[in-house]
Amino acid sequence: MMLDFFPEDIKPYIIPKPRSGQHYKCLGCSVEYSIEKLLYVCPECNQVLLIQDKKAKTLQKIPGKTWQKIFDFRKMLKIPALKGIYRYHEFIGPSIPLESIIYLGEGHTPVIEAGESLKETIGLSFFYKNDGQNPSASFKDRGMASAMSSIKDLIDKNLVSDVIAICASTGDTSAAAALYASYLGPLIKSAVLLPHKKVTAQQLSQPLGSGAHVFEIPGVFDDCMKIVEHLSTQYSVVLLNSKNAWRILGQESYSYEVAQYFDWDMKDKVIVVPIGNAGNISAIMNGFIKFYEADIIDCLPKIIGVQSEHADPVYQYYLEPDETKRKFVPVDTKPSVAQAAMIGNPVSMPRVIQIRKEYNAIAGGRQVFFVQVTEQSIMDSQLLANRNGHIACTQGGECLAGLIEALKKNIVTNNETAILDATAHAMKFSDFQDLYFKSQIPKDYKIDSDLNNINQPSLILPDDPTIIPSQKNRLGEKNFQNFIEDISGKIAKRLDLTTPL
Ligand SMILES: *Cc1c(COP(=O)(O)O)cnc(C)c1O
Ligand SMILES: [Zn+2]
């Protein structure tokens, strides 16, 4: 829709104008830094940063109802910069001029309600938000669009040049980083570090296809992360891991979209999210807080963070009920099918600790919960979801397993509605489905294949296996007719097709 046709009261706000106000703030010593520098940790105390908006209070000058109208009407714009996460420009990146925004189709992913049968099986109404339908097939594109747009802004302002962007990844960050960097080539070159044999074949193919430098490193993600950190302290590189506070900011769009999808009504809503490096849960909590403070939503939804028993440092931390006695201890991970969340020492732990506290304080009671699930339940839940029309990855399966666990523990009741984050597309993790169906998941995952869940292709051969069509040798008419009838008969038998036409 053209601007002329928008209602008068919101017309002045429809196209956002860039403004100052954003700065880095250290979570340790609270010192603030300019966003015109590349910065990942506090130079004073080495703690992680968040991007804050000094002028956030001015957002409250516009009534919440008007914001809702602005965002609903912005849906109809055809300006690429405002079609993705920057529909919420004032909340996501008010300093970024529209010309610097990179839009590759991220955000506004479908929200799909569980069908009747699945709903009945689980015992409450729930939705999957399919973040696997982002351009590189995971939610990481949200943060990457934000980080890359901020870099493009610095390039456009001649504050940086010849950028080498680098990240460690459990697979999806590198796919997103390589994709967005390649779009900006040759301004940006990207290098990704992956734990050798700890990402799926699809995830490895993505940065290769985007032309990134791909390095495989022995060990697990946490080891790769240490190398990236070392490189970033020795050389001038742009760090694209979720240490980069812009990543967190962009991922806040998930909450804004959920709020908008449910017409800004967050009452009795439960957000279920897997935790790896803990960037996503930090962003999601932060996003809801910001919308609450701007009066766009009038209550905060319940948040449930899910971890596998094979990578559960955040869950372990919150097991201690006495806040003063809690002590963060990294864990050594064990093999997990929720491989993208297989992290023992989450970079964003300080963010979780601070934002969770703030979230509960604003909500006026406990509203953030953590549950732990078995590897078996992750895999079984993923298969269950996908046999009912969803496209959840293993981490999406982890969310459903977490919802089931939360119901069991009475953290959630059946008059609430859950929104589960399918953080990546099922196809990225089909390696695990294949292994499950072949009953070949290695022992240390602690997963047995349930025979009822297994699905394998059946090769149907004719009685005479020498008379078969091939590209080179086409069968004669009679042989081909026999072949058709033979194979059809065998399929009909398998399918119990007994009713004639
Ligand atoms: C990165 C990732 C996660 C974990 O998110 P964090 O922000 O690291 O907690 C979960 N699922 C998928 C598919 C991911 O790529
Ligand atoms: Zn500091």
Describe the secondary structure blueprint for this structure.
Blueprint: H1 11-14, E1 22-26, E2 32-34, E3 49-53, H2 56-59, H3 64-74, H4 89-92, E4 111-113, H5 116-122, E5 125-130, H6 140-156, E6 163-168, H7 172-183, E7 188-195, H8 201-209, E8 213-217, H9 221-234, E9 238-239, H10 245-251, H11 253-261, E10 269-274, H12 279-293, E11 302-308, H13 313-319, H14 349-363, E12 368-373, H15 375-386, H16 394-408, E13 417-422, H17 430-437, H18 477-494
Parallel strand pairs: 5-13, 6-7, 6-9, 7-8, 10-11, 10-13, 11-12
Antiparallel strand pairs: 1-2, 1-3, 4-5
The structure holds pyridoxal-5'-phosphate and zinc ion.
What's the story with the biggest beta sheet? Answer: 6 strands, mixed
Task: Tell me the count of domains.
Answer: 3
Question: What CATH architecture label of the largest domain applies?
Answer: 3-Layer(aba) Sandwich
CATH C-level class of the largest domain? Alpha Beta
Instruction: Point out poorly predicted stretches.
Output: none
Record the strand order, biggest sheet. Answer: 4-5-13-10-11-12
CA-based shape: globular
Count up the helices: 18
Give the fraction of residues assigned to helices.
25-40%
Structural class based on helices, strands and sheet pairing: alpha/beta
- From the 3D structure, determine the CATH topology of the largest domain: Rossmann fold
Number of strands: 13
